[in-house]
Amino acid sequence: MPGKTKDIRVYSHNIAKNYMYLDVLLETLYKDFDVLFVQEPPWRTIRQAPSSSNKEGEDVTGAPMHPEWRAFWFNFALFTSYSLYLSVL
Protein backbone atom coordinates (compact mmCIF):
# COMPACT_ATOMS: atom_id res chain seq x y z
CA MET A 1 0.00 0.00 0.00
CA PRO A 2 1.56 3.35 -1.00
CA GLY A 3 2.42 5.71 1.83
CA LYS A 4 2.36 3.02 4.50
CA THR A 5 5.47 2.62 6.65
CA LYS A 6 6.48 -0.90 7.58
CA ASP A 7 6.89 -1.84 11.23
CA ILE A 8 10.35 -1.27 12.68
CA ARG A 9 11.63 -4.29 14.58
CA VAL A 10 14.11 -3.44 17.38
CA TYR A 11 16.38 -5.72 19.43
CA SER A 12 18.35 -4.41 22.43
CA HIS A 13 20.90 -6.35 24.46
CA ASN A 14 23.85 -5.90 26.83
CA ILE A 15 26.60 -7.93 25.15
CA ALA A 16 29.00 -7.57 28.12
CA LYS A 17 31.94 -7.12 25.71
CA ASN A 18 31.56 -10.65 24.28
CA TYR A 19 32.92 -10.47 20.71
CA MET A 20 31.73 -13.91 19.58
CA TYR A 21 28.23 -13.42 21.00
CA LEU A 22 27.76 -10.19 19.04
CA ASP A 23 29.14 -11.85 15.91
CA VAL A 24 26.52 -14.63 16.25
CA LEU A 25 23.71 -12.11 16.87
CA LEU A 26 24.63 -10.14 13.76
CA GLU A 27 24.53 -13.31 11.69
CA THR A 28 21.26 -14.68 13.09
CA LEU A 29 19.14 -11.53 13.60
CA TYR A 30 19.54 -9.62 10.34
CA LYS A 31 16.39 -11.11 8.76
CA ASP A 32 14.24 -10.66 11.87
CA PHE A 33 15.17 -7.16 13.12
CA ASP A 34 15.78 -3.74 11.56
CA VAL A 35 17.64 -2.11 14.45
CA LEU A 36 20.03 -3.69 16.95
CA PHE A 37 21.07 -1.67 20.01
CA VAL A 38 24.14 -3.06 21.78
CA GLN A 39 25.27 -1.94 25.23
CA GLU A 40 28.93 -2.62 26.14
CA PRO A 41 30.06 -3.56 22.62
CA PRO A 42 33.26 -5.59 22.36
CA TRP A 43 36.47 -4.14 20.96
CA ARG A 44 39.59 -6.08 20.06
CA THR A 45 42.57 -5.86 17.76
CA ILE A 46 41.43 -6.89 14.30
CA ARG A 47 44.65 -6.25 12.35
CA GLN A 48 47.97 -4.42 12.31
CA ALA A 49 48.30 -1.23 10.24
CA PRO A 50 51.63 -0.18 8.76
CA SER A 51 53.51 2.31 10.90
CA SER A 52 56.59 4.44 10.33
CA SER A 53 57.39 4.36 14.05
CA ASN A 54 56.70 0.70 14.92
CA LYS A 55 58.06 -2.29 12.96
CA GLU A 56 55.19 -4.51 14.09
CA GLY A 57 52.61 -1.92 13.02
CA GLU A 58 49.88 -0.16 14.96
CA ASP A 59 46.89 -2.00 16.41
CA VAL A 60 43.58 -1.40 14.64
CA THR A 61 40.71 -2.15 17.00
CA GLY A 62 37.10 -2.74 16.12
CA ALA A 63 33.84 -4.49 16.80
CA PRO A 64 32.30 -7.29 14.71
CA MET A 65 30.99 -6.21 11.32
CA HIS A 66 28.49 -7.90 9.01
CA PRO A 67 27.56 -7.05 5.41
CA GLU A 68 23.83 -6.96 6.25
CA TRP A 69 24.29 -4.33 9.00
CA ARG A 70 25.60 -0.75 9.11
CA ALA A 71 27.29 -0.01 12.42
CA PHE A 72 27.45 3.22 14.44
CA TRP A 73 29.22 3.68 17.79
CA PHE A 74 28.46 6.13 20.61
CA ASN A 75 30.16 6.98 23.91
CA PHE A 76 27.70 8.66 26.27
CA ALA A 77 29.61 8.22 29.50
CA LEU A 78 33.17 7.64 30.57
CA PHE A 79 32.82 3.85 31.00
CA THR A 80 29.73 3.04 28.92
CA SER A 81 29.51 2.76 25.18
CA TYR A 82 26.78 1.71 22.80
CA SER A 83 26.59 0.38 19.27
CA LEU A 84 23.73 0.76 16.86
CA TYR A 85 23.43 -1.61 13.91
CA LEU A 86 20.92 -0.84 11.15
CA SER A 87 19.84 -3.61 8.80
CA VAL A 88 20.45 -2.96 5.12
CA LEU A 89 17.71 -5.37 3.97
**Helix/strand structural class:** mainly beta
How many helices does DSSP assign? 1
The geometry reads as elongated
Backbone CA Rg: 16 Å
Fraction of residues in helix = 10-25%
Task: Assess the beta-strand content as a share of residues.
Answer: 35-45%
* Number of discrete domains: 1
Q: What order do the SSEs take from the amino end to the carboxyl end, as H and E? A: EHEEEEE
Overall pLDDT confidence = 86
Strands, total number: 6
Q: Unreliable stretches, pLDDT < 50, 5 or more residues?
A: none
Strand order of the largest sheet: 1-2-6-5
Major β-sheet annotation = 4 strands, mixed
Distance between the termini: 19 Å
Structural notes for this entry:
This protein has 89 residues and is mainly beta. It has one domain (10-87). It is built from 1 helix and 6 strands; from the N terminus they run βαβββββ. The strands form 2 sheets. Strands 1-2-6-5 form a 4-stranded mixed beta sheet, with no helix packed on it. The protein has a two-stranded antiparallel ribbon with strand order 3-4. The longest helix is centred in the first third of the chain and has 11 residues, at 19-29. The protein is elongated, with a radius of gyration of 16 Å.
Topology (elements, then pairings):
Elements: E1 10-14, H1 19-29, E2 35-39, E3 44-49, E4 58-62, E5 69-75, E6 81-87
Parallel strand pairs: 1-2
Antiparallel strand pairs: 2-6, 3-4, 5-6
